[in-house]
Structures are given as structure tokens and as C-alpha cells.
Amino acid sequence: MKKVLFVCLGNICRSPLAEALFKRHIEENNLSHDFECDSCGTAAYHIGAPPDERSVANALLNGVDYTHSGKKLAKEDFETFDFIIAMDEENLKNIQKINPNGHSKIYKIRRFDLQGLNKDVPDPYYGEEQGFQEVFDILNRATLHLLKEIYASKKKLLR
After folding, report:
1. Is 8 considered catalytic here?
2. Quick check: is 120 catalytic?
3. In a domain, 159, yes or no
């Protein structure tokens, strides 16, 4: 079983949405038995908080229903998860600063987005509704390509 952790700053917009979209892709491809995923933030701003209501509302408009409770990245996560996926360069650097044992599978999510290779996922928190849709579209593409890359060795056809 492969375990994937999605990480942003506060764990209320981007990373819980990435988690929800990744779960949707694994379920649509009957791969739930092969993957686990979760999300967290590099900052402790929203520990225990639900996802941003604008992100949840936008996801619902796109057919994705999810819940989450905010949490902060912990050193134990480096032992638990096979892949740690940052939403942007700042959080990637924060993850790498506390990487206790040299975890080697830490990436930016847009490494898997062919339309914005290696760019940051913008933080929609201070923006308008269109920003949440943009983030949804980016993460939907990137999480599917992440799944395909991780699962490529199994040579299973994915939708």
C-alpha cells in the first residue's frame, strides 16, 4: 500500500482538496485497496478546523464532497508516508527543513501537472471564487497524473 500526504500552509484550502481529489481518482479506478492519503499544513493556524467553506462549496459544484479536520505536519509523517506532496515552493522548503531522515519522495504537486509543470498552486484563501475553481482544476489534473505515475509500475489502465 502506498501512502500519500498532501501539504499546504494552513490545511484548509489546497491540501484537503488535493486529498479529496486523489481519493476520488483512486475510488474511480478501484484502487482504494492500494492507496491511503491524508493532508496537513506546515503551520498550526487551523488545527482542528474544517476546510474553508468556499473550497468545499466549489468542490460540491464540481461533484466532490469532502470533510477534513486541519492538522500540522509532524516528524512522524516522514516515517508514515511514502510520498509527501507540497502545494508550492514555500511549503516544499518548510517540509525539507524538518525532514528528519532525508525522506526522498517529497515533490511539488505541479511536478505532475503537464499544464503548469513545477509551478506553485496559488493559494485562493484571500481571493475570489474564481481562484477556488482554478485551484480545483489544477489539483484535479495533478492528482490524477500523480496517481498514474505512482501506479505506472502496475500497468493498470486508469480513467
Report:
1. yes
2. no
3. no
